[in-house]
Amino acid sequence: MITNEYFRDYRKKIGFTTQNDAKIFLGAKDIVPGVDFEYMKLLNERLIKIFATINQAISPEIKADDIGDFCRNNITDVFEIMKSNDIIKQLNNQGRRPEQVYFSWMRGYASANFFLKSLSLIFGVDLSKMQLIGDDDFKKVETFQRTAKADLEIAVPNNKRIRIEMQSGFTGINDIKQHKVLEAKRTYEQFKVPTMAIHYDLYNGQVAFLRLDAIKESDMNWITRQQMEGQTVFNIDQNYFTWKLTEPPVSFDLMGKELL
Questions:
Q1: Confidence bin at 130 (pLDDT 50/70/90)
Q2: Rounded to an integer, what distance in angstroms lies between the CA atom of residue 61 and that of residue 250?
Q3: Torsion angle, CA of 245/198/200/99, rounded to 10 degrees?
Q4: How far is CA 72 from CA 92, 186, 196, in A?
Q5: What single string gives the DSSP state of each residue in the chain?
């Protein structure tokens, strides 16, 4: 008769006293592949090409003055810092290779910096006065993270403060993760500071504006996204997209006070 005791004895014979250790060994889960830096070189080249290509297509008002300089400061130099601090090989997310995690993170990071110029025009705020409050840090693995906290906090007319959650999409699927909305609601309840998401859909060349803390739990746009491990997300309706990237940005005053 085959029993659980037999299973335990068998695993002991092959050298394991716990089920988990046996699973790790038999599945080779303890063998971590080294970082493929040749692959990463190609990824960085593609990142540079992505932003150079976008820079050619968008409205002149929001283009990078020197796209080569931008890519050095926001892609090449950041990569070298991460590499020298031994961060890249420690990146992981649902089993994805670190190179892929890096590429996804870097696209978002570079995109946020690339479109800061557009925010300064939209809100009429000097770039130097935009307060960075996000938690990204590419120098130490302990603080290299993406939390729910918004990226920027700026002052708008009437001395109101507003937090900005900058997002970028590259596939035509435009979602906001649930924890971003919950953090926005918490921030408004605690500090009375609203949070606006500005979502740059770089696949379709359009930008959406929506106030995160005003999204209702009962909104029909809440969905379960199977491609994101079944996460609950807020799908951004097309009606929120009001700016074409090929046209000059509209100032905040002209967008409609209902955003605040």
A1: low
A2: 11
A3: 150
A4: 25, 37, 29
A5: ---HHHHHHHHHHTT-SSHHHHHHHHTTTT-PPPP-HHHHHHHHHHHHHHHHHHHHHS-GGGS-S-HHHHHIIIIIHHHHHHHHTT-GGG--STT--HHHHHHHHHHHHHHHHHTHHHHHHHHT--GGG-EE-----SS-GGG----SS-SEEEEEGGGEEEEEEEEEESSS--EEEHHHHHHHHHHHHHH---EEEEEEETTTTEEEEEEGGG--TT-TTEEEEGGGTTEEEEE--GGGEEEETTSPPPPHHHH-GGG-
Structure tokens, 236? 């951004």
| Whole-prediction pTM | 0.84
**What would the pLDDT profile of 47-95 be if each residue is shown by its tens digit?**
999 999 999 999 999 999 999 999 999 999 999 999 998 888 888 766 7
* AA letter at 58: I
Per the rule left: phi > 0, alpha: psi between -120 and 50, beta: everything else, 124 is left
Strand order in the sheet with 222-225: 175-177, 231-235, 222-225
Strand partners, 13: none
pLDDT of residue 71: 98
- List of residues 6+ apart from 5 with CB closer than 8 A: none
